[in-house]
Amino acid sequence: MTGGQIFHEMMRRHGVKHIFGYPGGTILPVFDAIYNSKYFDFILPKHEQGAGHMAEGYARASGKPGIVLVTSGPGATNVVTPMQDALSDGTPMIVFSGQVATAAIGSDAFQEADILGISRGCTKWNVMVRNVAELPQRINEAFEIATSGRPGPVLVDLPKDVTAGILRKATPTGPAIPRIATYANTDANHKLLTKSISHVAKLINTAKKPVIYAGQGVIQSPNGPQLLKELADKASIPVTTTLQGLGAFDELDEKSLHMLGMHGSAYANMSMQEADLIIALGARFDDRVTLNVAKFAPAARAAAAKGLGGIVQFEILPKNINKVIQSTEAVVGDISENLTHLLPHVNRTSVAERQAWFKQINEWKAKWPWNAYNRDERPHLIKPQYLIEELSNLIADRKQETIITTGVGQHQMWTAQHFRWRHPRSLITSGGLGTMGFGLPAAIGAKVARPDALVIDIDGDASFSMTLTELTTASQFNIGVKVIVLNNEEQGMVTQWQNLFYEDRYSHTHQRNPDFMGLAGAMHIQHRRVSKPEEVVDSLKWLIHTEGPALLEVMTDKKVPVLPMVPAGSGLHEFITWDAHKDKERRSLMQDRTCGLHG
């Protein structure tokens, strides 16, 4: 078998059903081998970055690694952003890149690039295959490493003479390396785990004001969402989620605090600041959640000093323990395994027994509701929050079969805030890296993974413009994604910061968009534009029920801020809401706080 044929065989053995990529000279032996394969489909994007984000969307929707196949040089470097995005968000992705023949490496050959060196910082692992005999082992390793522990991207570099070379013995069967052991697989670690679980249970059973802070790790763990619900129900603990954790807990549950953080709900932020016990499940305390670390969780820290509470961290990677916040107790390993150990030791506690805590939370909810945005100002214009609320209402009975993707910017935060999240893997967005242009290709990948799902990309005009050529990919392969472009004709999140921090100096954040309707028509995409609030519902119904790919452009009100907002350098409780009706007060609060932003 040639190296290309070995690649095809190994993809078959690993159950690969779809590959995203773009051909080129150094990877042609592989493309020739997979020509007309009956085992998997190939999705050809318009740009390798699109292939990478499609693979991310595929992985996030299915839980299986997304596969990317590209050529050397620019083909490989174009996937660097998706690889870093996948690393930041813990997405399993395997990139196979072509490379010049081994004899030409280092000679500055045509389309040669040191992709191993380039990708070392944005992958979990990378390797160059030096001879055809080691190819099966390296592919097995790639699948193992991409999906073990905290998932992430890996890269396998394939010189052309390796993929064109011939292996004269049978392809090895079975995995090349053993499954990576869990933290609790040794006797010593088992004893440590038992001790930690016992301590956590004691803290939960004695806490007066506990909060569960759930991240994407809950969604990625096989039974994470179900076990999270069991813990929250049994101990009557309110739950807040990160952006990537949305869907881990049903937001219609009375215990839901919705999303926390810089643009999180005021009541989630207040709960985190006043809780005597914070139970972090698969969440990494990133800066968009903690804000000013010195001001984070003062009540929990005070309780920890008295031995009555603190911060408990359930984390799959030991290196993430105490990385940002000092924890009172840490439990390392898979969330599902460790919650299964914990639950029998947790006392059943009713909401009534936590009456004072829930009373306080409900007062915060009444004071600062999610939907407190200004509806009366310029009522003839479409408020983006209103459109997202109406979309959420229209598909309320089919959310288990719905996936929402977004780009990055204001539209991303409005979507997180005003859509009601009820099921895991229903939101796919770029969190850690904040990659504009992510939404459309991620939606295509998600739709390929789950063809029966309703997949909607809620995008902004600036973010959408970065990868809009992938509309032709949706058209070519009849991938029925729905796209909503919230068009305010500016880079909304950046202009919001320029308004608040830079005295309305809008430096290079307004742009002339193409005619999105004409563009969609040229790409054979069904399209419609809406500019009046009274036409929003009918337009959304059209989008939802249209067969095949479709685009809805929404002309929205401009200079609408995303609120609540915690200014840079502030504590989680020092947020600005719509109640701060005075721009002067808002600017006075924030005039000395500046922070870089792209989105």
TrEMBL record:
<protein>
    <recommendedName>
        <fullName>Acetolactate synthase</fullName>
        <ecNumber>2.2.1.6</ecNumber>
    </recommendedName>
</protein>
<dbReference type="InterPro" id="IPR029061">
    <property type="entry name" value="THDP-binding"/>
</dbReference>
<keyword id="KW-0460">Magnesium</keyword>
<dbReference type="GO" id="GO:0003984">
    <property type="term" value="F:acetolactate synthase activity"/>
</dbReference>
<dbReference type="InterPro" id="IPR011766">
    <property type="entry name" value="TPP_enzyme_TPP-bd"/>
</dbReference>
<dbReference type="Pfam" id="PF00205">
    <property type="entry name" value="TPP_enzyme_M"/>
</dbReference>
<comment type="pathway">
    <text>Amino-acid biosynthesis; L-isoleucine biosynthesis; L-isoleucine from 2-oxobutanoate: step 1/4.</text>
</comment>
<comment type="similarity">
    <text>Belongs to the TPP enzyme family.</text>
</comment>
<dbReference type="GO" id="GO:0030976">
    <property type="term" value="F:thiamine pyrophosphate binding"/>
</dbReference>
<comment type="pathway">
    <text>Amino-acid biosynthesis; L-valine biosynthesis; L-valine from pyruvate: step 1/4.</text>
</comment>
<dbReference type="InterPro" id="IPR029035">
    <property type="entry name" value="DHS-like_NAD/FAD-binding_dom"/>
</dbReference>
<dbReference type="InterPro" id="IPR012846">
    <property type="entry name" value="Acetolactate_synth_lsu"/>
</dbReference>
<keyword id="KW-0786">Thiamine pyrophosphate</keyword>
<dbReference type="InterPro" id="IPR039368">
    <property type="entry name" value="AHAS_TPP"/>
</dbReference>
<dbReference type="GO" id="GO:0005948">
    <property type="term" value="C:acetolactate synthase complex"/>
</dbReference>
<feature type="domain" description="Thiamine pyrophosphate enzyme N-terminal TPP-binding">
    <location>
        <begin position="1"/>
        <end position="116"/>
    </location>
</feature>
<dbReference type="GO" id="GO:0050660">
    <property type="term" value="F:flavin adenine dinucleotide binding"/>
</dbReference>
<dbReference type="InterPro" id="IPR012000">
    <property type="entry name" value="Thiamin_PyroP_enz_cen_dom"/>
</dbReference>
<feature type="domain" description="Thiamine pyrophosphate enzyme TPP-binding">
    <location>
        <begin position="407"/>
        <end position="554"/>
    </location>
</feature>
<dbReference type="Pfam" id="PF02776">
    <property type="entry name" value="TPP_enzyme_N"/>
</dbReference>
<feature type="domain" description="Thiamine pyrophosphate enzyme central">
    <location>
        <begin position="197"/>
        <end position="342"/>
    </location>
</feature>
<keyword id="KW-0100">Branched-chain amino acid biosynthesis</keyword>
<keyword id="KW-0479">Metal-binding</keyword>
<keyword id="KW-0028">Amino-acid biosynthesis</keyword>
<dbReference type="InterPro" id="IPR000399">
    <property type="entry name" value="TPP-bd_CS"/>
</dbReference>
<dbReference type="GO" id="GO:0005739">
    <property type="term" value="C:mitochondrion"/>
</dbReference>
<keyword id="KW-0809">Transit peptide</keyword>
<dbReference type="Pfam" id="PF02775">
    <property type="entry name" value="TPP_enzyme_C"/>
</dbReference>
<dbReference type="InterPro" id="IPR045229">
    <property type="entry name" value="TPP_enz"/>
</dbReference>
<keyword id="KW-0808">Transferase</keyword>
<dbReference type="GO" id="GO:0009099">
    <property type="term" value="P:L-valine biosynthetic process"/>
</dbReference>
<dbReference type="GO" id="GO:0000287">
    <property type="term" value="F:magnesium ion binding"/>
</dbReference>
<dbReference type="GO" id="GO:0009097">
    <property type="term" value="P:isoleucine biosynthetic process"/>
</dbReference>
<dbReference type="InterPro" id="IPR012001">
    <property type="entry name" value="Thiamin_PyroP_enz_TPP-bd_dom"/>
</dbReference>
